[in-house]
Amino acid sequence: MSEKPELVPGETRKLEVLTAIPKNEGVDSAVAATRRVISALLHAGDRTSAEMGAVAAQLNAIADHLDEHNGPVDDRLVDMWSGEGVTRHDPITGAENAIAPPLHLAGREDGSIGGVVTLGLPYQGPPGHVHGGVSAMLLDHVLGVSNAWAGTSGMTARLTLNYHRPTPLFQELEITGRQMKVEGRKIWTEGVISVDGEPCVSAEGLFINKQVPRPR
Ligand SMILES: CCCCCCCCCC(=O)SCCNC(=O)CCNC(=O)[C@H](O)C(C)(C)COP(=O)(O)OP(=O)(O)OC[C@H]1O[C@@H](n2cnc3c(N)ncnc32)[C@H](O)[C@@H]1OP(=O)(O)O
Description:
Elements: E1 14-17, H1 26-44, H2 52-69, H3 73-80, E2 106-108, E3 112-118, H4 132-150, E4 155-163, E5 172-183, E6 186-195, E7 198-208
Antiparallel strand pairs: 1-2, 2-3, 3-5, 4-7, 5-6, 6-7
Bound molecules: decanoyl-CoA.
């Protein structure tokens, strides 16, 4: 694929947000609080002076309360997929998903997309650095959204990753993606995770233009 244009992170004007804007209310606010809990528990470990039995009882009471009021999961799935455009529940950008960092993405007029995120202890692999599988997850999603931004989407068939240097926790990461080429049903897309302009992980994806039907 020698005709690929260069990815130039951060150079172009942001045009449109491609991820849900978190609200400071409702499930979004509870999810934001849950992210704090996940991070604080990892920080605590077993050497904490916090009363973990009490913490567990409170968290179980919250889960019991939610389960008691939740409807059937099939209805929730329909609800999740009822709108068009950005999703609110995915594990990378989802305002409604506590395991999402969350990453916020915006489309740019040069056809690329990008966003910044800082990852903490829940995403650790090597000491003080991001787990390689987490980087792969972020890039798979960014490549998928790049395709949506470019107008031809598909499912990941092949994802090739190059890990150039360890990706640090607690530092702002810039993640960019761009659709490179479409031939028939095949879509080639690239992306990179950078710190201070230096690439840490780069990805090349082959996507096939096919969609799983939305639940109705
Ligand atoms: C705004 C919201 C945006 C949200 C973004 C979210 C992005 C998330 C992206 C994902 O994570 S998707 C989930 C992970 N991917 C999957 O679960 C896909 C699982 N695999 C499949 O469903 C199918 O294998 C696939 C759709 C990829 C292809 O099956 P098809 O039956 O449609 O295609 P087919 O097997 O006929 O192959 C079509 C062409 O692609 C080629 N191909 C298929 N898989 C390939 C592969 N793995 N490697 C190389 N080439 C491949 C295949 O050789 C063939 O080439 P030719 O036309 O030249 O003969």
